[in-house]
Every structure is written in structure tokens, then in C-alpha cells.
């Protein structure tokens, strides 16, 4: 099967911001864009994106999961990058329009239609290293995706990185291109040196997140994850999992977690760890690598609570459980 995110629907919705206002929504071919090589985004990385999914239910309905949370986050990213302000109602319409057009192509579970809104600064002004782009382009790409878990019983190996950081500390909560390029060096080195799947960034011992997913620790009835601050991306999946954990009567502790505490707790039988994100849903972590030593998390296998929380989330997304929190937008 094609790699995640390499197949695209042939059309996308697009709007441009010029002279202080947004254009009407256009539907255009999704295999090209036209803008000046001097565009702000290509030189000064004025870019942000979102990732969300539409799911097909047994009764034929297609539902988008937590669209409003993703739109709000994109508006926030745009603001923090000094891009033109997103018109949230218009972006809502752009997403609904394009998903409606390709409703028939939304895969059945465990597949889904991945939705990728992208916002870039297009002003042709290479003298603007220290000034915002006054024009921009917003588009919504669609990519049908399969099950990230085709691997079955696998768990991830994470390298704990205490010296480097994923991105500049004030940029962690912005879903912006440069942050991912900035994390590629450490991730590639971790793959080569210790065969790690991901790097868990823990600057000065503070457990934050991996390159593109949040980290959660599960100890019995308690779910522990870092409390929201500007240093890391505030995942919609993280928030959904914490909400479902509370619904199941679990204790949710949003607080700082140190590497020392993580390693100590991880080795207790019954402890579980997982990564959360739209693409990965909830991926079990089996091994932590720290200072040349490997620590198995619990029994090293996918944990029962991790699987239960993932199933609870999938059940809402797939229309198999009540949408008690109003997370679905029916197309
Ligand atoms: C997108 C992303 C996440 C996960 O966010 P979701 O809203 O759950 O998809 C976590 N960390 C980073 C760095 C991300 O880019």
C-alpha cells in the first residue's frame, strides 16, 4: 500500500488573502500552485498546517472529527506567525466543501480521509526577513489513508533526548513547517545510532513530546502527561484521550514529568506509555532508550489501557459509540 500521505484527491479548495481581505473559495487541481519564487514562505518559513480526519460510518454518513478545534488551532498558529488572520467560518466551509466533493472516496475504518489545511505567506518581498507577509494562500488537501497499525502487535522505541530540543521553546505550540525540519537531524541520528523510531524531546529533563506526537504515561488508573504550555503542540488527540480517560473514571494528571520519574515509573509492571496524534491515534511505546541503556515499559507489549482508550476514541470516530462531547461534524 502507498505510504501515508502520498495519495491525494485531484482537487482542493483554495482562498487567497490580498489587500486586507480573503477571496472567495475556489476549487482547483491539487497538483500545482503558482506563486513567486520570492514568496515570504520560501525564505522566512511563514507557514502553518493542520491535520484532521473524516470517517465513514456503517450507515453511510461521513463525519469530520473535532474540526472546530483544528480550525481554532490553525487560527492561533497563523496569529503566532504573523500571517494574515484566518477567517474561521471560511476555513470551515473550505473543509466541508472539499470533503463533500470527495465523500464517496472516504475509506472505510480503519482507513479515513486525512485533511490537510495549509496556510503560507506569498508576498514576493525578500527584504521582509523581519516583517510579515501581507498576502497569503490557504488551501485544503485531501489524502485517503489506511490503518497506521497494519504492523499489529508492535511497540515503539523512543530515544530520550535531554540536550537538544525539538524547536525554539516559544514555537512549540505552533504547527509550523520549520519546527519539523529543525527536529529532523536528531531523529535521523537516533534512527541510525540506536534504531529508535522516534525521539522523545526532554530538554533539561522535562518530558515534552516527540517530533509529531504527544507523549502520555499510564500508571494503573492514572494518566500522566505534560500540562499545556508554549513548549509543545497541544494535540487534539491528546485532549480527546484525556477526556475519554476521565469519562472512564481514570485520574488525569496534567503536570511536568521528569526523565528520572519517567524511567522509574516505566519499569514497574503494569505501566504503559503511548504517543497520541491524528495520524498515529494512540501508538504504544515499548522501550525507552536513555544514556545508552534500554528500559522496557511495563512488559514491553501494547498495554491494555492504551488499547482500551484507543478503542474508545475509534468508537466515537467510527460512529460505534455515542458522540457525547459533540466531536463529529456530519457532511
Ligand atoms: C500535530 C502534532 C501533534 C498531534 O496533534 P493532534 O492534534 O493530536 O494531531 C503532536 N505534536 C506535534 C509536534 C504535532 O505536529
From TrEMBL:
Keyword terms: Aminotransferase, Pyridoxal phosphate, Transferase
Alphabetized GO MF terms: L-isoleucine-2-oxoglutarate transaminase activity; L-leucine-2-oxoglutarate transaminase activity; L-valine-2-oxoglutarate transaminase activity
One family name in Pfam for this protein: Aminotran_4
GO biological process, one term: L-valine biosynthetic process
Biochemical pathway: Amino-acid biosynthesis; L-valine biosynthesis; L-valine from pyruvate: step 4/4; Amino-acid biosynthesis; L-leucine biosynthesis; L-leucine from 3-methyl-2-oxobutanoate: step 4/4; Amino-acid biosynthesis; L-isoleucine biosynthesis; L-isoleucine from 2-oxobutanoate: step 4/4
Residues bearing the modification N6-(pyridoxal phosphate)lysine: 175
The enzyme's E.C. designation: 2.6.1.42
Record InterPro entries: Aminotrans_IV (IPR001544), Aminotransferase-like (IPR036038), B_amino_transII (IPR005786), BCAT-like_C (IPR043132), BCAT-like_N (IPR043131), BCAT_family (IPR033939)
EC class of the enzyme, as a word: transferase
Keyword Transferase: yes
Reactions listed under catalytic activity: L-leucine + 2-oxoglutarate = 4-methyl-2-oxopentanoate + L-glutamate; L-isoleucine + 2-oxoglutarate = (S)-3-methyl-2-oxopentanoate + L-glutamate; L-valine + 2-oxoglutarate = 3-methyl-2-oxobutanoate + L-glutamate
Cofactor list: pyridoxal 5'-phosphate
Membership in a protein family: Belongs to the class-IV pyridoxal-phosphate-dependent aminotransferase family.
Free-text function comment from the UniProt entry: Acts on leucine, isoleucine and valine.
Protein name stated in the entry: Branched-chain-amino-acid aminotransferase
Protein species of origin: Reinekea blandensis MED297
Lineage start: Bacteria, Pseudomonadati, Pseudomonadota, Gammaproteobacteria, Oceanospirillales
Amino acid at each position: 500500500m502507498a505510504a501515508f500521505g502520498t495519495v491525494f484527491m485531484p482537487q482542493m479548495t483554495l482562498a487567497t488573502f490580498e489587500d486586507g481581505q480573503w477571496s472567495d473559495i475556489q476549487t482547483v487541481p491539487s497538483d500545482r500552485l503558482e506563486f513567486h519564487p520570492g514568496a515570504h514562505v520560501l525564505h522566512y518559513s511563514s507557514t502553518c498546517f493542520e491535520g484532521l480526519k473524516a470517517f465513514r460510518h456503517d450507515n453511510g454518513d461521513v463525519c469530520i472529527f473535532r474540526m472546530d478545534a483544528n480550525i481554532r488551532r490553525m487560527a492561533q498558529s497563523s496569529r503566532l506567525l504573523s500571517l494574515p488572520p484566518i477567517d474561521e467560518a471560511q476555513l470551515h466551509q473550505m473543509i466541508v466543501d472539499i470533503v463533500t466533493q470527495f465523500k464517496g472516496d472516504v475509506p472505510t475504518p480503519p482507513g479515513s480521509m486525512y485533511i490537510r489545511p495549509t496556510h503560507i505567506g506569498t508576498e514576493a518581498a525578500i527584504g521582509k526577513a523581519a516583517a510579515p507577509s501581507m498576502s497569503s494562500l490557504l488551501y485544503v488537501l485531501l489524502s485517503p489513508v489506511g490503518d497506521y497499525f497494519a504492523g499489529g502487535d508492535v511497540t515503539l522505541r523512543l530515544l530520550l533526548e535531554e540536550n537538544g530540543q525539538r524547536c525554539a521553546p516559544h514555537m512549540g505550540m505552533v504547527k509550523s513547517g520549520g519546527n519539523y525540519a529543525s527536529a529532523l537531524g536528531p531523529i535521523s541520528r537516533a534512527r541510525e545510532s540506536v534504531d529508535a523510531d522516534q525521539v522523545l524531546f526532554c530538554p533539561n529533563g522535562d518530558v515534552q513530546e516527540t517530533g509529531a506526537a504527544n507523549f502520555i504515561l499510564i500508571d494503573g488508573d492514572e494518566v500522566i502527561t505534560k500540562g499545556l504550555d508554549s513548549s509543545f503542540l497541544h494535540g487534539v488527540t491528546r485532549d480527546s484521550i484525556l477526556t475519554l480517560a476521565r469519562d472512564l473514571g481514570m485520574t488525569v494528571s496534567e503536570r511536568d514529568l521528569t526523565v528520572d520519574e519517567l524511567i522509574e515509573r516505566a519499569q514497574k509492571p503494569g505501566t504503559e506509555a503511548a504517543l497520541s496524534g491524528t495520524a498515529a491515534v494512540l501508538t504504544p511505546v515499548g522501550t525507552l532508550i536513555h544514556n545508552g541503556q534500554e528500559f522496557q515499559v511495563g512488559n514491553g507489549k501494547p498495554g491494555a489501557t492504551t488499547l482500551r482508550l484507543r478503542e474508545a476514541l475509534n468508537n466515537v470516530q467510527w460512529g460505534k459509540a455515542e458522540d457525547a462531547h459533540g466531536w463529529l461534524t456530519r457532511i
